[in-house]
Amino acid sequence: MSQCKQSPQEFIKDVFTPQIAVMCTPAAEKCCEKNNLDFTELLQPFSKLTNDTTYKDPSGATTLIKNLKLSFIDFNLRPPQTVLAKKLLNSSVSEAAEPKTKLHEVKDYKLEIPASTPWFESWRDTFMKVQYPSDHEFTKHYLACLIVVSSNDNNPVEAVIHLVQNLNQMQNSNSTGKLPKWFSANTLKYYVILHDNTDGNSTIANEAFNSIKSSYGIANCFLLRMNSRPPGASNNEHLPDPWSQFLNGKIDTKSYQVTPECSPGPTRHLSLEIGQEANENKSLNYHPLSPEVEDLTLDHDTDKEEQLSKRKKSWSHGCCLSVDDIEQIKSMIYEFASACLLPYIEKQLASLYDSISYKKGMSKTLFSATKRWFSTNKSGTSVVAINNLIYSTDSPELQIRRLGDLYFMFGNYNSAFQAYHTAKRDYNADQAWLYYAGALEMAALSAFMINESSRKTYDYMEESITTYLNTCKMPQFATRATILSSECLKSKQLYGEAAHQLIRMTSEDSDLRSALLLEQASYCFILSNMLRKYAFHMVLSGHRFSKAAQKKHSLRCYRQAYEIYENTGWNLAADHIHYTIGRQANNLQKYDEAVESFSKLLTKDSKQTNQQQGTFLKEYLTILQSKLQKDGLDEIPELPVPELNNSTLKVLVGPTRPLSTPGKIPAMGISFDSCEDSAAESRWHKLEEMIISEVNGASPLIFKPMITLYTTSTLEKNIPIAIINEPIQISIEFSNPLQTVLLLKDIYLMWSYESESNSITNKVLNEHVDKYIKTFITKSVIIQGNCKQDMVLSLTPLVTGKLTITAICYTLSGSTATTENIIVKGKKIINISTNASIVKPITVEIVPYAPRLQITFSEINLELLAGELQKVSVQLQNTGSVPLKNVLFATSVPLLLESELKVNHKEYTFADSENPQLREKLARKNHIITLPLPNNQLENGQNISFDIWLRAPHQKGPASIDLLTYYENINPKSTPKYRLIRHSWNLSVQESISIDVSPQTSYNSTTEEELALALKATNLNKITNAISTEITLLKVCLLSNNWVLTKDMVTPQYIILNSQESAHILTKAKRDVRENSQYSYISLTTDKISIPYLTTALLSFARKSDKALLNVFESAQEFRKIKDGSLILEWKALVYDALNRRVVNGHTCIPIEVNRSDMMQLERFISNSMVDLNSAVDTADRAVERAQSQVFYNLLHPSIVKHNFKITKSCVVPVTLVLHSIVKNAIQVTVNTVDRKNKQTNTTKTFKSNSLSLSASNHFCWLSNGKILRILHPLTTTTVQLSVIVANPGTFDLGANLAVFCNRLQKDVNPILQLCEVHSALIVIDSNS
C-alpha cells in the first residue's frame, strides 16, 4: 500500500502545532524581499527545533519536547472563504507530483500501485490549513506574537510601540467570531529588530535593540542581522534552497481573486467542485460500473478546468543570506522558544491549573444543575441550540480545554488526556455537543500519542465523528477527525475500521473529498487482502475523481482497478473501466493510452449491445483521428477490428484461371481450397513424382513437390517464387468480433520491394510504384456482426527482385451511413510465424518470364451412368513469353481415362510385383501419357488439340478423375524448371446395368473345349429415381487369349431394358489359344450403324480392363486374379428427366473364370456343409490341388444301345475319351481302364450324383484293361478310342471304372490322379424282350 511521508504521530503533531502570529513593518518586509521571501517564509524551514527543550508542568514535573515545531503565521492572513478554500483543495490535488509505483503482490496478483499518495497528503495538509479557528478548541489560536521592525524604520522603537498598540487595540475590541483569535488575553510578545548588514546602520540597530531590551527584557528581544551578501554578489558559497519545498505547499490567497459571484453563501452549487462539474448531467442516475455512460461527457475541449497556479519565482530564495545569517535565524527561533515561549507556557499552565482548581471547588449554580437535570439528550436537540451554546471565556469548562490543548501542543499527552477526559464529562453534562465531540477527539488522539490506545479510546473517536457529523452537522470537523482517526487505526493495522470510517465520510456534497477518502479506503482493503473491495472502491474513487474534474487521478484509479478486473470474466465492469480510461486519457490528451483502452472494447469478449459497440467504434476512431493529427506521422496505425486470422493465411503464385466460354472449361489448376483435402494433395504429389522419375529416367533421391499454394506452415520453410506478369494472390480471413457491422474500404496489400538498385514501398500509392508492383485495390467489403469474411488480395510483379508483403491496409468506417461518417486508415500486420513473439512477413522471390500453358476442355455432363463413356476435346496453348517442351499427362485412374495418343500399356506379372524398381517403372508407363509436339516444343502463342475419353466407374456415388499436366521451360537453367497444371472431373455416378455371368464347361465338345456362357443383364435404375434410363443392349464381346465367341446364341433380336427389367442371354465360346488377347463379339441388334471412334474407345477401355495393369495407388495385394478373359456388354441408354433427354453409350466389363467342377450346385452346397468330426481341418496344399486339376475329360458314346442278348451273349459299345489340357505346360496323360476292384478312389474329394449312383451299375469291362499314354501340349485336346463290353441289359456308369493320371514331362515322377470324374450313363436294352 502507498505510504505517507510522515508517521501518524508526526502528522498529528504537525496538525496541532503552536500558532505564532507575526506583525511586521513595511521596512522589515522590504528587508526580507531581497531574498524573495517574506518574514514568515524566511522562518519556515527553521521552525522545527533540532535541539530538545524542556518545561515544567504545574506539578513540577519536567516535560521533554523533542523537535518542537512552531507555526509562524502572518498576522494579516485570514483563512480563505468557502469557494476559495475549495479552489485551493482542488489545486492541491491536481498539482501534486506523480509518485513512483511499486509492485505489490497479493494472492495471485501482482499489482502496480503508487509508492505514496502525495495528492492526498497535499489535500489533507491544505484541508487542515484552510479551516477557520473555532471557539470550541484553542489549537488554532495564537499563543504569541512576533513584533518585527527594521533598523531602517525611521524610529524602530516607535514602530514597535505602534505595532504593540495595534495589537492591544485589536485584542481589546475582538469579539466572539472575529479573527484573529488569541489563546489568552495576556498574549506573549516577542520583539525582533531586523538589521540589513548591507544597507542598514549598525549604530541605529544597536541603539534600538538596547532600548527595546531595557523596556521589555532581554528574553523577549532579538537583533536579527541578515543580508550579509549584497545583491548580485558572486556566489562563492554553495547554499541549498530550503525554502522551495515549503513555498510549494504554502497557501497564497493573493493568487486567487474571489469574485462576488463566488463569494460564500448558502448556495452550495457555487463551489468550485460543482462549478467544474457543470458539464456533467447531475440528473443522471446510474451505477458507476454501468457501461451505459454515453451521457457522461468530459470533453476537455469545452470549459477546460481553471488552471490554478501558485506564485512561482524565476530566481532562487535567500540569495542575500550567508551561512552566518541562516545560523542567526536558527538562533533567534531557538532563543524565542526556549527563553521566551516555554517559560510563558509554564506560567499559563500554572495559571490555568490554579484557576480550574479554585473554580472546581465551588458548587454549580442552581440553574446549571436544573439545566442538566431537565435538558433533553443530544438526539432530540436542535442543531441551532447545540452549536449556539457558548461558554464564557473564563468558564472552567473552557479553561480545562485550554489546559488540555496546551499540554497536547507541547507534548505532555498524559496530562492532556486527563484534561480532555475531564472536559468531555462536563460537556456531556451540559449537552454542549460540539465541545463534547472536540474533547472526545483530542482524548482519543492523546491516548494514541502515548501509545495507550484501546477499544475505549477508539470508541471515543468513533463517537466524536458521529457527533460532529450527525448531531452538530459540521462535516468539516468530522472529516478532520476521520483523517486523524484513520491514520491511528492504520498504524494499529485495524484496516477494516479505518476503511469503514473513510467510506462513511463520502457524500454528494464534495466529490473531491469522497474520491480521496474512497481511494484511501481501497488501500486499506488491499492490506486486508480484500481485492474485490479494493477494486470496487477504486472504481468508485475514480468515478468521484471524474465528477470532481480530476481527470488525471480518475484515470489512475481506473487503471489500478483494472488490474483486478482483468481476466475475471466480468465483462461489463471491464468495459466500463476501459471506456472511462479511454475517455479520461483522451481528455488529458494521452492519445496512446486512450486508443489502447478503446481498442480493448472492440473484442469478441464484449457483451455490449449492437448500438453500444457502434458508439465505442465511433469514439475509438475519433480519438485515433485526433492522435494521428497530433503526431503528424505518416505511419499507418494497426486497428483492432476486424481481426486477421494469420493461421489461415494462404499464398497462391501462378497464373489465374481464365474465364469459361460456352462449351469450354479451363483447367481448374490450384485453388485456395486445394490444400484442405490431404488425401488428394498426396495423390497429386505422387503423380508429380512419377512424372519427374519418368523424365529423368530414375526416381529422385529426395523428392520435393513443387509448391504454388503456400500455407503458414510452408511459408516458414519456403520462399514463394513468383513470375513476372503473373499474380500473387493472398487469401485472408477477416473476422468481425463485434455485433455491429464493419465497413472496410480501399483494401490492399502493403509491401516493400528490393533489388540491387532500388528499394520501394507502397505506403503511398502512385504511378511510380505501379511500375514495379501492380497493387489491386478492393473497393469495399461489409462484414456482418460476429461473422467471418474471406478475401483474396493480389499483386502483380512487373520486375525481378525481392518482394516483402508486410500488412493489409484498409480504411475503417465508423458507420455504414454516408452522413457524419468517421473514417480512419489502418492496417493489420501479416505474421506467418508460429511464434507469437516474432513478426515474420511474407517474402516472395520474383523471377523472369516463363512459359504459361493454358488448357481448355470441352464441357461435359458430370452426371454419368456407371460405365458411360464421354469424349473430351483438349486444347493446349502457350500463352507465355517463352517456348515450352516435354508435355506429359498423368492420372491416378488409368482405367477411367484414355487418349487417342498411342500408349502401350504395360501388363505385369506376379514376378514383376516382387521387384519394387521394376514395379514402379511399369506403373509409370500406365499412368503417364507423353504428348508429341511439333519440333519437340510449343512456341508462345502456338496451340495443339487432341481428344481423350472418360469412363465412369462401375460403382455408384461421387468419383473423381484427375489429370496432371507437366511441361518444362525451354531453358533448362531457368527457375522454375517445370510447371504443373491440375484438373479434375468430379463425377456423380448413377447406377446403369449389372451383369451376372455363369460360365460352364460344355460336355459335348468333341474336337476342342467349349464354354457355355449364361448372362443376366438387369437395368438397376429405380422407378423412384429422378432420372429414368432406358438401356438398349448392343453387343456381347469377349476379350481373351484362350476363348472366342461362337455364333451360337439364344436371345431376342432387340433387348431394351426399362427400370428394374432383366434379360437372359445364352452364348457359347470355344477354345482358341493366342499369344495376345483377341476380340470377338456377337451383335445383339441388326443395326449396322456404328461410331468408329466410339468402338475404338470401347475396345481400348476393354483391353485396359482385361490386362493386369499395375496401379501405384493400389496396394501390392490388389493384383487382379488370373482369369479366362473379360466379358463386355456394350449398350446405349436414353437418359431423361422432366426437362432433358440425352443418349449415352457405355459398356460393362466383368472378368470370367471357368468353373470345371463336375458337382451340381446342390451337391456342392451339401459337400461344403458336411463336417467330418474325425478329420482334421482341411489344410491341403494349393499346389497339390492344382496338380490334381490339369486335365478335364468327358466320354462320347450312344446314350441308348439295343442289343439281342440271345444271339450274342455280350454287347460291345465303342466309346471315345476326349481329353482337354487346361494348363500352360506340356503334360503326359495316363488313362487306366480297371475293374471296380482295382479302382482307386478318393472319398474325400469325389461325390457321385445320388440319382446315378443308385440306378447305374458298374458291372462292365473295358476291352483293353491296361494303361494308355498320351502327350498333351498346353491347352490342347486329344481323343482316345475305347470299347466297353456288357453281358446283360441295364444302365451303366462308364466313368466308374476309368481313372486318368497326369504328370509334367521330365518333372513329376509319379503320375497324379485327376479329380475330374465323368458321370456318363450308358443304357443297354435287350431288343429280344
Automatic annotation (TrEMBL):
What are the annotated GO cellular component locations? Answer: TRAPPIII protein complex
User: Which residue ranges does the record assign to the TPPC8 C-terminal Ig-like domain?
Assistant: 1192-1302
Q: What lineage does the source organism belong to?
A: Eukaryota, Metazoa, Ecdysozoa, Arthropoda, Hexapoda
Question: Which residues belong to any copy of the TPPC8 first Ig-like domain?
Answer: 675-864
Q: Where is the TPPC8 second Ig-like domain?
A: 867-981
- Read off the Pfam families from this record: Ig_TPPC8_1st, Ig_TPPC8_2nd, Ig_TPPC8_3rd, Ig_TPPC8_C, TRAPPC-Trs85
Q: Does the keyword Heme apply?
A: no
Superkingdom, natural source:
Eukaryota
Describe the location of the TPPC8 third Ig-like domain by residue ranges.
984-1148
Q: What is this protein called?
A: Trafficking protein particle complex subunit 8
**Alphabetic keyword roster:** TPR repeat
TPR repeats by residue range: 575-608
Q: Does the keyword Lipid metabolism apply?
A: no
Matching PROSITE patterns:
TPR
InterPro entries, per database record: Ig_TPPC8_1st, Ig_TPPC8_2nd, Ig_TPPC8_3rd, Ig_TPPC8_C, TPR-like_helical_dom_sf, TPR_rpt, TRAPP_III_complex_Trs85
